[in-house]
Write a structure and sequence with these properties.
alpha+beta, Arc Repressor Mutant, subunit A, Endonuclease, Chain A, 4-stranded mixed beta sheet, disordered C terminus
Length: 406
């Protein structure tokens, strides 16, 4: 008998994605952004998984600045294969070995402070023993302006005998710290500003320490508090420079640039300059950054003409800011004072010696024109203290300020 032909099957047509599917797997062209989770596609295909995080993983990451360790992810219900799939697909990135974060989140952290804080927090998650962030790793969460490290390192301090162990970009400092030197930032133990500033001085020398201590005093740390912390560091490595740093520091310095400027002017060898030199007349009062004799030194940074959106603090267009600054300089020079304007290139980096030479030339020329005595300016000195400027806080999208709010 002839074999009966098999019934023809209708052609398989691709199914149209449902609204729920579009919601979860939107394309870049559509601009759909979703939080990745780990869920099965269907009960009929248990082996197929889509890169998605469950709520327990999200909860852990939200309390750790967007980070999670491999053991934590497994404890939260993920399998090692699921973790590897997220990393291999580029959805997750390894901040340190065994510590992960969403790649888009890491890419959004563009400032040096944000990147260092994420790296330091990841290093902290790798260390099991009790510790606190310290040195530069504490300065950034504390919003303490400091000079950058030549080689960025994650600094952790553990109670114990004095000593330091360095490995894989992590410096574990063994040093005691009393409870009053410890604070918490976004749930993370951090050594306070006084201890942090002096640790930086011991680690990186006088100038880096001077910048850190000036910043700490600007935040409200007193000289007596610094001396008390330094007293506990007696006989610690590099502790001999601490008293010199503390005595040289000033709470009237408004920025890192002004600290560097004062340091360079002091190095000219004509005495210790005066900071925040005030003049008042005709209903107007100005405060000059640094004065040596009848020479005024003013530090100019781009933040003066940039808007807050651009990273500065100007509340007017740049043309108005520059015009007002010209009027301010005319007011100062009207007292037979000379003004030397200085930028970063004059006080830091390869142009330092050229900047120092220019400042010296201008100072000597001013001495020939006007001398050095300022006794005639006594009637024009402000009677009260200088009003403290409002601190400019950096824009940091980390530690729960933005997406990962705990």
């Amino acid at each position: 008998m002839p074999r009966r032909a098999a019934p023809s099957r209708p052609p398989i047509r691709p199914t149209r994605p449902t609204e729920r599917h579009r919601e979860c797997t939107g394309t870049a062209a559509e601009g759909v952004v979703h939080r990745p989770e780990l869920v099965a596609v269907s009960a009929s295909a248990p082996g197929r998984m889509v890169s998605r995080m469950n709520s327990r993983v999200i909860a852990v990451m939200s309390t750790q600045w967007g980070l999670i360790t491999r053991p934590q992810a497994i404890d939260a219900g993920m399998s090692p294969a699921q973790i590897d799939r997220l990393v291999n697909s580029g959805r997750w990135t390894a901040v340190r070995r065994g510590v992960y974060a969403e790649a888009r989140y890491v890419a959004s952290l563009t400032s040096h402070a944000e990147q260092r804080m994420l790296a330091d927090r990841a290093a902290s998650l790798r260390v099991k023993k009790a510790h606190a962030l310290s040195h530069h790793s504490a300065a950034y969460p504390l919003e303490l302006p400091v000079l950058r490290e030549p080689e960025p390192t994650s600094h952790l301090t553990r109670a114990g005998l004095v000593g330091t162990h360095r490995r894989d970009g992590i410096a574990q400092h063994l040093a005691p710290y009393p409870p009053e030197q410890l604070c918490h930032v976004a749930g993370v133990p951090v050594l306070g500003p006084a201890r942090t500033a002096l640790d930086i001085a011991r680690e990186h020398g006088f100038l880096a320490g001077l910048v850190a201590v000036d910043s700490a005093m600007r935040m409200g740390v007193t000289r007596s508090e610094l001396l008390a912390v330094a007293a506990r560091m007696y006989c610690w490595p590099q502790s001999t420079i601490l008293r010199d740093v503390i005595e040289s520091a000033s709470g009237d310095i408004d920025s890192i640039g002004e600290t560097l400027l004062r340091h360079v002017v002091t190095s000219l060898g004509f005495g210790v300059p005066e900071v925040q030199f005030g003049l008042t007349a005709d209903g107007r009062t100005v405060w000059c950054d640094v004065r040596l004799g009848r020479q005024i030194f003013e530090f100019d940074g781009l933040v003066k003409i940039l808007t807050p959106v651009e990273g500065g603090y100007a509340d007017r267009p740049p043309t108005e800011v520059l015009w007002a600054e010209k009027g301010r300089q005319d007011f100062i020079t009207g007292f037979k004072l000379a003004v030397c304007r200085v930028t970063w290139a004059d006080v830091w980096g390869p142009g330092l010696e050229q900047g120092r030479a220019r400042m010296l030339r201008e100072y000597l020329a001013t001495c020939e024109r006007f001398g050095t005595d300022v006794a005639d300016l006594a009637p024009y000195r402000p009677r009260g203290p200088r009003p403290r400027p409002r601190l400019q806080r950096p824009t940091i999208r980390l530690m729960g300020w933005d997406r990962w709010a705990a």
